[in-house]
Amino acid sequence: MIWPEHRIETRDWNPRHRQGSRADRTLETVDVSIPPMIGSLGCDLVGGVARAHEEAVIAVARLEAGFGEHLAPLSDFLLRSESVASSKIEHIDAGWRAFGKALAGGKASEEAKSQLAAVKALIAMVDAAGDGPITGDTLLGAHRLLMAPDYYTARDSGQFREVQNWIGGSDYTPIDALFVPPPPELVDELMADLLVFANRTDLPILAQAAIAHAQFESIHPFTDGNGRIGRALISAILRRRGLTHRVTVPLASVMLADTRRYFDHLTRYRSGDADGFVEYIARAAIVSSEAAQDSARALAELPGHWRDIARPRSNSADEKIIDALLGTPVFGADTAQRITGTTDASAYRALGRLTAAGVLEVLSESKRNQIWAATGVLAELEALSTTIGRRTSEHL
After folding, report:
1. Which of 77, 133, 169, 241 is the most exposed place for a label (fewest CB within 10 A)?
2. SS3 at position 337
3. Considering 143, 213, 220, 265, which one is annotated as catalytic?
4. Is 305 annotated as catalytic?
5. Which key words are in the record (predicted)?
6. How many domains is the chain built from?
């Protein structure tokens, strides 16, 4: 497709304070990248890009439709996997066990809280997109959720930036930056145009989602959190267009597996190579959807495996916990008591037996607020990431 490249403009650099090296302090101008207006542009896919796009749509549709009774727990599983991988791209990685503690309301590290906030932001964006158009309020609300764990970033959350930002280079100025987004006075207009594009219904779905993401990252409308909100926008558009209804395609795991390739494609998009970015996202959707289908099959087999190793009595507290594990793989004692409908002591005995059998593992060290997790589900989260990483290196 023919796609306009970003134009470069030289702007005066007038900071409030002169800091940093001598080069920082004497900087007078900066070259900023101005994205084109895309609201009314078409996406005419041809050749290999069109074929990859069609394959990707089929792969996502197959993932969405193929797993019946296991779709509800699979939905939560994939959503958490996508959010955690998206955070890892930003070098925020608490580990699955620390994240599980945060998920169950236990004492958590700052990184785990940040990853949980990314889950909440993704849920908010996808749910809103399922109910109607993606709006500026959708993005701002999700950004508030994402930034909430940190007092300092939370103060500036939920609003588009009013300062110049940049990627790479100096901490004080855009000197030697890898990319300098448009100046703040252009952000509102560019975002309004992007939302027009994101809400259209006459475009190839994955192409629309891919380009919207690349455009969002090029505008870089927030002072922080642009990567995670921008990647959530892909999932929101897939939900808005009806390609997904419950699952979240774990695209961020593909990006995480080879971040250099991901960032290189974003850079080429700014030179007018929209086709390249669309094909990259399409192939990422194929790889991640097929890997997610493997995880779905593995998850479906877990309850039978748990029964084999724990041998619970019929209608016992142990069996009730096993039956609930796919939908609630991480939980505290209160949840266990609610699931089993038994006394505190009876629930603890069941948890002890299932832990001894290897069905559960204890995530928290505190005896007062213990948190348990289904060992097999945590293992499958790791397996999904590993599988996507291997397939990314083989097929992308």
Report:
1. 133
2. helix
3. 220
4. no
5. ATP-binding, Nucleotide-binding
6. 2
